[in-house]
Amino acid sequence: MPRTSRLLIPDQATVYHVMSRTALEGLPLGDAEKDYLTTLIKQLSRLYFTEVLGFCCMGNHFHLLVRMLPEDNFSDAELQQRHELFFGEEKRFSEGHIPFYRLKYASLSELIKELKQSFSRWYNRRTGRRGFFWSERFKSVIVENGETLINCLAYIDLNPVRAGIVAKPEDYRWSGLGCHVQQGNLDGFLSLDFGLNEPGQIDPAERLRRYRQYVYEVGELEASHGACIAPETAEKERRRGYTLTRKERFLYRSRYFTDSAVIGSREFVLESFQRFRTALNISKDRQPKRIAGLEGMYSLKRLGA
User: Fold this and answer.
1) Whether residue 231 sits in one domain with residue 128
2) Domain check: are 235 and 98 in the same one?
3) Is 132 helix (H, G, I), strand (E, B) or coil?
4) Which of 3, 14, 177, 282 has the fewest C-beta atoms under 10 angstroms from its C-beta?
5) Where are the beta strands (DSSP E) in 36-129?
């Protein structure tokens, strides 16, 4: 029986919810694997014509909510710049290859194919195995902007709660909400479009607060399967207006004390990087990453995210 054609809208900005499972038994995606998969999503989002709205890396599958942008949104110079920043100046392509790369970098299928193949190669090298890591075909659903989008985002961010892994969705670091709260959305990796249908400009912190409120309200409801956000946890957040205290921001960011290769002032991190770059096996220069919520503190991420 032939495959059903994938529903794609190439000539306008379109949001897709992508889901893909591993072909292996059990939960092969541990902490290191989830870190690397998140890093790949971040890196490829700078190459492909896309905005990452949300994601969640679970033990045997991942969710990704992306808005693919039409190729005509980008000039030839922007296309070349994205390619060179990702692959290096030595990989600059000729004008004759522009149509090919335009189609490639605007393609959802190419994006997910590169994400899954890159991860599979890394995983197989790391574990000394061969063969497929992912199930052959990923699922994708076109998502309408607005109310549908925010519901889909909440569904994705609530996956770890439904699975009983965490009590609060932002406690899970390999998700969109975890990335916003724990890392302060470093490098603007994630879009701030939460599907909030409200007129006028909204401050980013207020956008995040309103989205957290929505997630908690949805997460507290009884689900058809899986756990819910406990009523006492939801009530505590409700009383506080869904805002994070300075102490909580610190605690969420404190994972950098164990997950970073170097942490300290910008000058200290730069000096340490130069001293240990050979040991870290890093050839290109790296800039310290500011840790949101910890004033004047920077890190050199272990995985180079």
Assistant:
1) yes
2) no
3) coil
4) 3
5) 50-57, 61-68
